[in-house]
Design brief:
The protein has 165 residues and is an alpha+beta fold. The chain has one domain: Alpha-Beta Plaits, CATH 3.30.70.3270. Helix content is 21%, strand content 15%. It is built from 5 helices and 5 strands; from the N terminus they run αβαββαββαα. It has a 3-stranded antiparallel β-sheet with strand order 2-3-5. A two-stranded antiparallel sheet has the order 1-4. The longest helix has 16 residues. The chain starts with a helix and ends with a helix. Bound molecules: iron/sulfur cluster (2 copies). The site of one iron/sulfur cluster has 14 residues, from α3.
Amino acid sequence: MAQVVPNTLKGFGVTLKQVFKKPLTQQYPEYKHPVYPRFRGRHRLHVHANGLEKCVGCSLCAAACPADCIRVVAAENTPENRVSAGERYARIYEINLSRCIFCGYCELACPFDAITLGNDFEISEYNRDDLIYDKEMLLKEPVKKVPVADRSLYDTPIPYYRSHS
Ligand code: SF4
Ligand code: SF4
């Protein structure tokens, strides 16, 4: 109880300090603040240099996903229809981004680096169904781009936040 008054005053002090600070307004979306290089945003599916898909439809990403938002339906590659470098490929690959928590577990679980999380965060839609990204969408380069901060600022022995806070 004795600590309540000093702690309350301390809280007011923090608020009061902000009142005299110059406001910082960023004109989004004209100006986009660069995101942290390892920021996890919209997913991408990748292909090999020869054009074959890296994904072999193993569903390890789906098994690792805590939000249960990945759906993979695999099919066999044939000599007439070779889609991926493995025995099978993902005939259907969907991610429901309205459920995704961007934890990155799918990326970690994938043995072929077929799925990665990019930096793009501008993925809002008016309709929830539009947030179900299919394979075609995931294979495409994202339309919207956000700037990414200089990686060298962060890959230092002393973390950036320690030397600048
Ligand atoms: S980032 Fe996490 S929640 Fe989102 S699809 Fe991957 S594993 Fe699932
Ligand atoms: S993205 Fe990777 S883990 Fe997921 S099904 Fe394809 S190969 Fe397997």
